[in-house]
Amino acid sequence: MSFAYNKNLKIEFRAVPYSTSHVLEYRISPDQDLTYETEISIFGLCKIKLKRKYKTNWHQPCTLVNYPGAERHSKESGEPYLPMFVRDKNEFKKIQSTFNTIGEFFDYVNKEEAKEEAEWQKARNEYLKTCGTWE
After folding, report:
1. Does some domain include residue 135?
2. Do the domain assignments include residue 1?
3. Share of the chain above pLDDT 70, in %
């Protein structure tokens, strides 16, 4: 996961129903200064600074998960990516208390996803060896 946000922005979470479970959603907390400046160039001749605001829409993070059978799918297919499931209210409260900023949350997600991707890549390579290429 990547983002183009200020890493120090406060974050909010919620767990929404998903099939027979709940999945995590996050957003930038609207209870803070959301303005930022961006610079655009018009035909390379002049630069203009614009003030903008970060959006506070809810997002459902999807991460690569090395579930059984995931090795059969390429990353580009999107199949190995799943939403972040929340098992119970205690786990949800722990997430809320652990991550205060969007930077802390994305750093954690990226670290965990890197572990999953390493396992998936190993299984994927072994799977591709057994299948071979037909020419």
Report:
1. no
2. no
3. 95
More confident residue, 121 or 43: 121
Q: Is position 4 within any domain?
A: no
Work out how many domains the chain is built from and give that number.
1
Mean pLDDT of 105-119: 93
For position 4, what pLDDT does the model report? 60
**Which residues fall within 8 angstroms of residue 58, CB to CB, at 6 or more apart?**
14, 25, 26, 27
The boundaries of the domain holding residue 95 are: 11-128
Report pTM: 0.80
